[in-house]
Amino acid sequence: MKEKITTPEAASRRSTPAARGGRPRRRKLTVDRVTFFLAFLGVPLAVFVTFVLYPFVQAIFWAMTNWRGFSPEYDFVGLDNFTKMFEDDVFQKALRNVALLAAVVPFVTLSLSLAVAVAVTLGGPSRGAVRGIGGASFYRIVSFFPYVVPAIIVGLIWAQMFDPNAGLVNGFLTKIGLDQFEAFAWLGEKSAAMPSLMFVFVWGLVGFYAVLFIAAIKGVPAELYEAARIDGAGRFRTTISVTLPAIRDSVQTAYIYLGIAALDAFVFVQALLPNGGPDNSTLTISQRLFNVAFRQQQFGYATAMGVVLAVVTLVFAALVFLVNRLTGGGESDGMEKARGLKSRRARAEGAAQ
């Protein structure tokens, strides 16, 4: 019977014995470990506290003052600014407007973006390998082009196109026989101002999210689409049952970003409707904040609006995460199906051999 000889090297490779109570012993702090934590945890934490947390706390403080913005004098007024805000009919209308934008713009934009992405990546022939339509690169470039143009330029361009007398929109509609739009003021009519603003939002952002979804769809295993095609699923069914579950996390992230962009809307709105539109029908919180701060010189009151807008944005993001979790979010179902399909295929190949 051979005796087992333990060498010093093997002994050094043994795990550290647990301390009393079953807990492992703490590793000693070395210069390398301290340097690592300071470089990769301490520095980012310091930057976050300095440029995120501290300004937010400072904003809460100024929101409780009557600071005018251009002098060091101010008085502490407590919650008076917040009380005044929710008694302000103009602010309440701006809050309803951004809520409408946050409800409509992300849904429409992501629906169109997903449609474009599916058509480009999976809209090819129904036989043979799953592939996109011909000239997919051209369509990606064309759809992404509006996002390359700065938002202020997009707003100014569409403001000219919506011009009631010399705009391209009315000119085109008149040419095709719709004479009722000969001098229609798209941005001057209360019923048309908000839909026109939403259209510009969608036009300017749909291309970026289409490219984002194209990249996400290309990461979905091709075996899933092949299995769906064998089972007789059409393109729409494949999109609902395979593509959407597989890129669920990307859709959630895009929805949050779009919702934040709609809630914080300023550039598009300021370029198209700098005065808030007819009867403040397109006024946003950021526009109201800008006017109160720089035109009325009530920076304390404007800061209170900014705090409320930040809270509304955080609540929106939390709701999106909550809905995603309640509807079965987390790890994508499509990826789980892909792993199951690959394991079944591997077992079948092993049995055949």
Summarize the helices and strands and which ones pair or pack.
Blueprint (H helix, E strand, L loop, with lengths): L7 H5 L18 H32 L17 H6 L3 H34 L13 H13 L2 H11 L6 H8 L14 H29 L3 H9 L4 H12 L1 H16 L3 H6 L12 H10 L4 H28 L6 H20 L1
Helix pairs in contact: 2-14, 4-8, 4-11, 5-8, 8-11, 11-14, 13-14
Membrane topology: Multi-pass membrane protein
Main location: membrane
Protein name: Lactose transport system permease protein LacF
Fraction of residues in β-strands: under 5%
Instruction: Estimate the helix proportion, in percent.
Output: 55-70%
CATH class: Mainly Alpha
| Rg (CA only) | 29 Å
Which structural class do the helices and strands define? mainly alpha
* Silhouette: flat
- Per DSSP E runs of 2 or more residues, the count of β-strands stands at 0
**Could you give the distance between the termini?**
41 Å
